[in-house]
Fold each of these.
Amino acid sequence: MPTFEQISQQLDHQAIEVPSWAYGNSGTRFKVFGSAGTPRTVQEKIADAAAVHRFTGLAPKVALHIPWDKVDDYAALTAYAAEQGVQIGTINSNTFQDDDYKLGGLTHHDPVIRRKAIDHHLECLQIMDATGSQDLKIWLADGSNYPGQADMRSRQDRLAESLAAIYAELKDDQRLVLEYKIFEPAFYHTDVPDWGTALVQVQALGEKAMVCLDTGHHAPSTNVEFIVAQLLRLGRLGSFDFNSRFYADDDLIVGSADPFQLFRIMFEVVRGGGYAADSGVAFMLDQCHNVEKKIPGQIRSVLNVQEMTSRALMVDTESLAAAQQAGDVLGAHEVFMDAFYTDVRADLAAWRETRGLPASPMRAYAESGYQETIEADRVGGTQLSW
Ligand code: PSV
Ligand code: MN
Ligand code: MN
């Protein structure tokens, strides 16, 4: 098995994009809890994202969600982010919080609503021009609750037309990334429920259209790493929304519910070339911190991704291939598990110190006083949700 030393240089380029909404208050449909220090402005969300990067060196970009993060001057916001030491990353559209979208957005039967949804995406593209963002990420709440409620088939056609209208406005260096989700908020059918549908839709658009894989968006027991392998094989894995789940789209800290799954996913990422610095795969978090503090929640998350990436890089691929080739079932399995069971935490702590980072970002954050400062300073104004 390769040693940590042998793989450690490959950790240098790791970058995980954090979501602006992770810093806002969140909750369930039962209750959104307020918490001291929660951002009241988009700038405060960006400052918190920058803190995650300062303590970990892992999170140089923050994704925005429009209109949650709408501002008047995106050039000024981009400059503000740079002052804080981060960049604005993916722009996420949002057609799920407006009454007009009750029965759908890009798939709606009414051309007026459809046009409104398309125009929202064109506005997102303009924001990307101002922020220098590469990716427009589209997740749709579109679907239906009752059999017969909607014509599922014509909605696919309308989706294709709407996406084509948006795709036509992309600049050469911009991409459209389509995110699928099995259910919720629609409970009977969802217009982009799975990777197959997302793939069919993006393939019809062209080379700059990709699929986003949110790890919480599958049926229980789905082999998510198989989907990773397949999308990479087809050159269509645009991004991840990392989180973990016990039941549905729980949006918990990545690697907390099932670290082994995160390891298996990262192994397929590495195996398929998705970890190369120029692979075009954007690694993002999509999480909400309902009960834990948000900044340490994000720090824990990026560290979990780093830890499982290290272990995945340590799989002895030569021995694995040899065992597979020899039909040695348990031998191959053992090679795989050896890497998974390797504790790299002390190595990572030392690695961080050689790069001027705190050995324990969690402890360093707790001792830094940042949390106390924001809790004392951010009184008054309205706390943001999501
Ligand atoms: C939908 O569940 C989703 O995963 C999409 O990425 C949304 O943009 C995000 O969550 C919002 O929280
Ligand atoms: Mn998501
Ligand atoms: Mn989700």
Amino acid sequence: DEKKTPYELIGQRHGIEKLVTSFYALVSKDPVLSPLFPEDLTETAYKQTLFLTQFLGGPPLYTEEFGHPMLRARHMPFPITDVHAERWLSCMERAMTGQKLESHLQEFLLSRLKMTAYHMVNTERSEN
Ligand code: HEM
């Protein structure tokens, strides 16, 4: 049905949790990304599940629990370069591919996440 939200197409809460779990498994093994994250990613994965739910057109679970996302502000404590954004997106793409999402859905999700990821960049890449 063409009126379904991306949230429904991905498989609602269950589909998002699966994606988030495989995404953070990849993040934790990424030598560039992992130093920015806490060792225990349970809370991070929980927040991302709530955020992606509302980002993809599901109920506003993140806002209900944590307030306005203000994602750029919440990422300011972490020095994020374009390299981090690329690697974040690469982990997300591999997580989606592992889940065998329908290719149109995957392209749509990645194009939206790409805008958000580059919006988080707050630090210039050092040349050395
Ligand atoms: C939190 C890194 C992009 C959504 C975080 C945290 C880090 C981080 C280090 C804190 C983890 C914690 O303390 O629990 C990055 C990096 C990115 C990136 C390096 C590369 C561009 C994104 C994108 C989204 C996103 C594109 C949205 C689709 C979130 C959310 C949180 C979070 C919802 C939890 C915020 C909170 O309530 O504290 N991110 N992030 N991030 N990130 Fe990202």
